[in-house]
Amino acid sequence: MSHHIVEFKNVFYRYPDGTEALKDLSFRIIHGESVGIIGANGAGKSTLLMQMNGCLMPTTGTVTIGDLPLTRKTRQDIRRRVGLIFQNPDDQLFMPTVYDDVAFGPLNLGLDEACVRERVEKALSLVNGLELRDKPPHHLSGGQKSAVAIASVMAMDPDILAMDEPAASLDPKSRRSLISMLKTFKHSKIIASHDLDLILDVCQRCIVIREGTAAADGPSVEILSNKTLLEENNLELPLSLQRRQL
């Protein structure tokens, strides 16, 4: 399953205004790993995710997905492998109806109408969103938009799932459904989130990003129970672990 591997080697990224978002970042994620990306605001988490499918290209260093190094020539192939869910669902929803948004990716893969319909219904079912299929996205609540954005990526049947704050706008029931869905996704998944309980529940491994580089990398249980490490990165223990200490 080499096509499910994600590898960053000495990646630097500088925004046009001169801000260095990533600094000599290196890590490797293998098939089937669930990896949480945590860190303070501005640490580089979103930039990291956008490098995974070519929304942003490294200033220097290499990003490799499977056996493909990320280049301007390969990024369309890489985007078929890596499903990226943005923090703001409005960045992904632009069609007249929810059905059209979720169908957009499969249609662009050249799938026939019956296969597209099957993928749309399956993806919307995963997020409990079938009843939304005929609604305009701009009429949806924030949580509903997030669910549809997730469905639009799942309909592409990606090898690797990369998510930026996927639970930020979800109500408790939708959050539980998201966690259940993520646990059934058998391929590699990378989740950047301030919801450390979600990371603890879903991800076996955790990488702490500080000022654009990996400050720590290890089992989630160890990383997320290290109060000193978390406080050094402007984070707190997951609520579930805080309660155990009371």
What would a concise description of this structure say?
The protein has 246 residues and is an alpha/beta fold. Helices cover 37% and strands 24% of the residues. The chain has a 6-stranded mixed sheet, sandwiched between helices.
Instruction: Quote the beta fraction.
Output: 15-25%
Query: Structural class, from helix and strand content?
Result: alpha/beta
- Which regions have little confidence, pLDDT < 50, spanning 5+ residues? none
CATH superfamily: P-loop containing nucleotide triphosphate hydrolases
How many angstroms separate the termini?
Answer: 44 Å
Number of helices: 10
Shape designation: globular
Rg from alpha-carbon coordinates: 18 Å
Q: Provide the residue-averaged pLDDT.
A: 91
Number of domains: 1
The CATH architecture comes to: 3-Layer(aba) Sandwich
Strand element count: 10
- CATH class designation: Alpha Beta
- Major sheet summary line: 6 strands, mixed
Say what the CATH topology is: Rossmann fold
- Strand order in the largest sheet: 6-7-8-3-9-10
N-to-C SSE series?
EEEHEEHEHHHEHEHEEHHH
Helix content: 25-40%
Describe the structure.
There is one protein chain. The protein is an alpha/beta fold and 246 residues long. The chain has a single domain, classed as 3-Layer(aba) Sandwich (Rossmann fold), CATH 3.40.50. The protein is built from ten helices and ten strands. A six-stranded mixed beta sheet has the order 6-7-8-3-9-10, with helices on both faces. The chain has a four-stranded antiparallel beta sheet with strand order 2-1-4-5, with helices on one face. Helix 3 crosses helix 4 and helix 4 (113-126) crosses helix 5. The radius of gyration is 18 Å and the shape is globular. The mean pLDDT is 91.
